[in-house]
């Protein structure tokens, strides 16, 4: 999916979006990290710079999540909102 989005971005010169969804603990954050790594690799971005951007995004997640979390029967840290990561290449 990330490859298709990247190819369309290059070919059509139009913004692309990916929706990553799932239950708590399904791996949404890990999947977003893999997508960012792939796009950085496919674009030929220098790995140091791409890693720096990815680290900043991932470091901000716990802070943002703390504003909307609640305790549920299934999870003591359940998010009550979606994440929106906007990355420019």
Please give a structural write-up.
By secondary structure, the protein is mainly alpha-helical. The protein has helices at residues 2-12, 28-43, 47-65; strands at 69-70, 78-79. A two-stranded antiparallel sheet has the order 1-2. α2 (28-43) runs antiparallel to α3 (47-65). The two termini are 17 Å apart. The model has no long low-confidence stretch (mean pLDDT 75).
Approximately how much helix is present in the residues? 40-55%
N-to-C series of helices and strands: HHHEE
Principal-axis shape:
elongated
Kindly report the spatial arrangement of strands forming the biggest sheet: 1-2
- The radius of gyration over CA amounts to 15 Å
Calculate the terminal CA-CA distance, rounded to whole Å. 17 Å
Helix and strand arrangement:
Blueprint: H1 2-12, H2 28-43, H3 47-65, E1 69-70, E2 78-79
Antiparallel strand pairs: 1-2
Write a short abstract of this structure:
The protein has 89 residues and is mostly helical. It contains three helices and two strands.
């Amino acid at each position: 999916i990330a490859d298709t989005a990247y190819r369309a971005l290059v070919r059509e010169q139009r913004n692309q979006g990916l929706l990553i969804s799932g239950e708590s603990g399904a791996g949404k954050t890990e999947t977003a990290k893999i997508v960012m790594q792939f796009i950085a690799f496919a674009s030929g971005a220098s790995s140091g710079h791409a890693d720096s951007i990815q680290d900043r995004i991932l470091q901000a997640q716990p802070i943002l999540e703390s504003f909307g979390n609640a305790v549920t029967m299934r999870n003591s840290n359940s998010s009550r909102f979606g994440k929106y990561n906007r990355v420019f290449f």
